[in-house]
Amino acid sequence: MTLLYSFLTLNILAFIITAYDKRLAIVQKKRISEETLLTFTAVGGTIGSALAMYIFRHKISKKYYLFKFYRIVFIQILIGIVVFYFYEKIFV
């Protein structure tokens, strides 16, 4: 259950940080770095980041950012597949 709460908290944080970066962009203030945004994505905030990106239309026209974002998503999917298919051989 702790893992679920951690996952939810991380995704909520990723959503808030991405939305806040959009707000900073609108008012032309110092922004949150792409490295920070992508780090939250990489450690498990993919869903929250993606929702904020599409709800607030933030970073969706930046091809290089999207390339990095989708590369992270692809790697997470591969890890999920490996863990799903090889769970017994790895963890048992």
From TrEMBL:
<dbReference type="Pfam" id="PF06961">
    <property type="entry name" value="DUF1294"/>
</dbReference>
<keyword id="KW-1133">Transmembrane helix</keyword>
<feature type="transmembrane region" description="Helical">
    <location>
        <begin position="38"/>
        <end position="57"/>
    </location>
</feature>
<dbReference type="InterPro" id="IPR010718">
    <property type="entry name" value="DUF1294"/>
</dbReference>
<keyword id="KW-0472">Membrane</keyword>
<feature type="transmembrane region" description="Helical">
    <location>
        <begin position="69"/>
        <end position="87"/>
    </location>
</feature>
<protein>
    <submittedName>
        <fullName>DUF1294 domain-containing protein</fullName>
    </submittedName>
</protein>
<keyword id="KW-0812">Transmembrane</keyword>
